[in-house]
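user: can you give me the structure for this one chain? tokens are fine.
assistant: on it. calling the predictor now.
[tool input]
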Amino acid sequence: DGVVAPPTRAGAEHVFHVYCVRADDRAALQSFLKERGVASGIHYPTPLPFLQAYERLGHLREDFPVAAEYQGKILSLPMFPEMTAEQVRYVCESIQTFYAGKVLS
């Protein structure tokens, strides 16, 4: 609970460029991970429709409700070819530890 991983289609493998999850209480999770030595990032902090370059189109946040909702939730977790299974486990366990101590609404 608290994190939604990117979906993958059954019978297919994905070559992720960024491993981006949706996380409740993203800022607190990111801070917690940093304290545990786990790097994370927010690669796309502003969805395209909300960029200044597109203001002239006059869109409202309500025009893109999913983008508006996810804007404050997306968090890129570590992912690189040399990452070991032990490191992946550590990241997962760190996330589990964070949410085990929280009461989510």
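assistant: here you go. The first strand starts at residue 3 and ends at 4. Helices lie at 26-35, 65-70, 85-100.
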